[in-house]
Amino acid sequence: MAVTGPDFISLQVRDLAAAQAFYERYxxxxxxxxxxxxxxxxxxxxxxxxxxxxxxxxxxDSVSQPGIGAAIWLHATDVQDIHDTLVADGHxxxxxxxxxxxxxxxxxxxxxGYLITLHDRA
Length: 122
Description:
Layout: E1 8-13, H1 16-27, E2 39-42, E3 48-53, E4 72-75, H2 79-88, E5 93-100, E6 103-109, E7 115-119
């Protein structure tokens, strides 16, 4: 028996509705018709990506950066356009777009402080 790879990624957020709106507006994610009431599961492939209410006892304000040490990379088809829209709307960018082994790549800071890297080469 062996693990075959990642199957689900979920981020705990302070305001589920605001986080959902951010990911839908800026990253173009679409909510899946299934999912529990305390979470928003997006229709992503091959790995499900979700946002969920904070688990009791979790205090995102007590850490300098939520998820520190974890790398969250999402594939996108229009990385530069996403970057430009975020910047135009005043959202923080942790690292500017570059062209590298994973294509056009940049890292944004979401509403809760998670660092999310977008790249356009699968």
